Amino acid sequence: MPLTKTSHQASFYRPPPQSSTFSFPPPASVNTPTFPPTIINFHVGSELSTQYHWHTTHTEYLRVTSGAALIMVSGVSKIYTAKDGVARVPRYARHEWMRFDRPAHLLSNGQREAQEAYFREHDKEEIEKLKGEDLIAEEWTDPADGQKEIFFRNLFSTALEPQYQSKLSWLGGFWKMLQIMCVMWEMDNYLVLVDFEGWRGGWRELVEAALTYAIMGCMMALGVLCGCRAVSEEYTPKHLIERWESGRPKSE
Known about the structure:
By secondary structure, this protein is of the alpha+beta class. It contains 6 helices and 11 strands. The strands form 3 sheets. A 6-stranded antiparallel sheet has the order 1-2-3-10-5-8, with helices on one face. Strands 7-6-9 form a 3-stranded antiparallel sheet, covered by helices on one side. A hairpin with a 5-residue loop joins strand 1 (11-14) and strand 2 (20-23). 31% of the residues are buried.
């Protein structure tokens, strides 16, 4: 069965409780060496988080333009608003971000402490104002090679793909999981599957990374054997595919 064509879409919406919109402004030219930031909107009440993860080939940047974000980088949690400037995430740094008012039971201890401290230090009127605003942020990477947009497009298109909503729900769900692992592996997104506080370095980082690479790598390999691929033409604009392929190592 053919995949649903989504390469023309300028945005993707996820319904509650994830309640979010990811938008992709067009580049000034298809030949531009860089790509504009992804615009991410976590709507009021959204419980979505980016999940705890790291990148090996890209430094990531995040700038809040509306509302407030709870951002954790290398074990340090802080709440950012538009006045706080850009948050930088170095390569290999474990990180996660979400709305600042995400329900406390969904937070880690450090995130909960940062949230509670922010609530104590700011007056109720300001907190309620921020709670009533969408969290809107710009996210981009260095290098700005379009890979972030390719990742989001293939991730969300897979998650929303109608044919994976099989009557055999376990089979459709398993296939979707394999497809998503292929996307994440190829697009430089590695999940912290077991948190050993790898941001502390040393053996913790090694064990944490080894578990992630082993589990995700096996799932990715199984996905490839089953016919999954990280980047689909149905999901990805042609100029992005061409740019991505031009930057990949050439096989002999």
